Known about the structure:
Blueprint: H1 3-11, H2 16-28, H3 30-43, E1 51-52, H4 55-67, E2 90-91, E3 100-104, H5 110-121, E4 134-135, E5 137-141, E6 148-151, E7 157-160, E8 165-169, E9 176-188, E10 196-201, E11 204-208, E12 212-217, E13 224-230, E14 232-237, E15 246-249, E16 252-256, E17 262-266, H6 271-274, E18 280-287, H7 288-299, E19 302-306, E20 315-321, H8 325-335, E21 338-343, E22 346-351
Parallel strand pairs: 9-10, 19-22
Antiparallel strand pairs: 1-4, 2-3, 3-5, 5-8, 6-7, 7-9, 8-9, 9-12, 10-11, 11-14, 12-13, 13-16, 14-15, 16-17, 18-20, 21-22
Helix pairs in contact: 2-3, 4-5
Amino acid sequence: METELLHKYLSGECTEEQKAEVERWLQASPQNQEKMDEMKQIWDIPTGKRIHVDPEDAWELFRSRVLVPRKRFPAEARRQSNRGNRYPAYKNTDRQWGRSVRLMVYSAAIAAVLMVAFLLSHPFSQDSAPPEFELSMQEITTEKGQRTTIRLSDGTRVQLNGESTLMIPKNFMDSHRIVTLEGEAYFEVASDMERKFFVHANNSITQVLGTKFNVRAYPDEDNVEVVVAEGLVSMSSEEQLHAPEVQLIQNQRGTLSKSGEVVASAISDVDLYLGWTKGKLTFHNTPVQEVKTSLERWYDIEVVLKGDFSSNEKLLTGTFENVPLSLVLGSISLSLDLQYQQDGNIVIFSKQ
């Protein structure tokens, strides 16, 4: 059963014929029903725990980050590093979905930032006692070899790639919709002309009203990349105060380098960047080091490179869809003139 069809079934978007097909599949075996139950736990994200936030700690964070503002973006969009405890939700034994999906709740220093909205409507003197806040937040994390789809409270659909984390509030604010991403995700943002949608990823801010775009921001990669499939988005650096925002339209890619510069460029084939959302592992003139990282994230394996591959003399181009790992490894070794050995979860590539 195709994963996309199951997603449509959960969201109520499939036809009557597709609905009947899924229900027949569910009745075919208890394992199918179990898999559907697991998917539903991911789809219907439960309400997070209510957490009391210490008002003194919240006030100190608020004072340091808001009373001395440095950024032109909503303060809520900044990345928060104080995460507190995490709680695993359930264990998934289906290897296609990875070893586990964790829905995690944490006590958030972001409560201090939410004081901004409160102060705009309820001003008080700096000597006054700060108000107390309770905030419920959630964190969805995928492991290597795992991809999943969720729907946010505003109707926005998010596909999360392997080894990625999405941080979301229980409910969006009246003025903004803000999420934080580490890794890669494809967003189909529900249109809301009154509330912009912000994605904070590493040192980048991407803002939209309603569109479809991909954000790639893995911590071990130098650049943050945004690819627009539909609509218009704005991309900018969080660190460069005076740097202009860069507007990106359909079939454009924006790249934020470590220097804080955003560069826009046209792309001829969106599937090179969005193929993963359709179950495609895609390479285009990809160096071996990057191939290694992609294989590890896609198949949850460890790849070892024996030899010097720093010159990037071997580049891989190709697309793999619903192909066993053994065939992928064989194709890569033939294409790049390499030898490979596999021992369980470890794959070794070496030069001929």
